[in-house]
Amino acid sequence: MRLDKYLKNSRLIKRRTVAKEACDTGRVTVNNKIAKAGTELNPGDIIGITFGNSSITVKVTLLTESPRKEDAQDMYEIVSNE
Hints:
- By secondary structure, the protein is an alpha+beta fold.
- Helix content is 20%, strand content 29%.
- The protein has a 5-stranded antiparallel beta sheet with strand order 2-1-3-4-5.
- Helix 1 crosses helix 2.
- It starts with a helix and ends with a strand.
């Protein structure tokens, strides 16, 4: 699954266009490497997202094409939240 789609489906970022923009400006990393919006994800990958002064690091646990709102949090596990 593409990184921008995953960020939107997991509800880590609200809209796919915002997720793509975050990737294009270098604020998203996958396995400690700056990632583009089209980067393919696999379970076990570590995603780091920087929002202004805060950042969050999550581990991909599940790839679901169209999860329900209640199931979106099952797609990742928070590693750190600063």
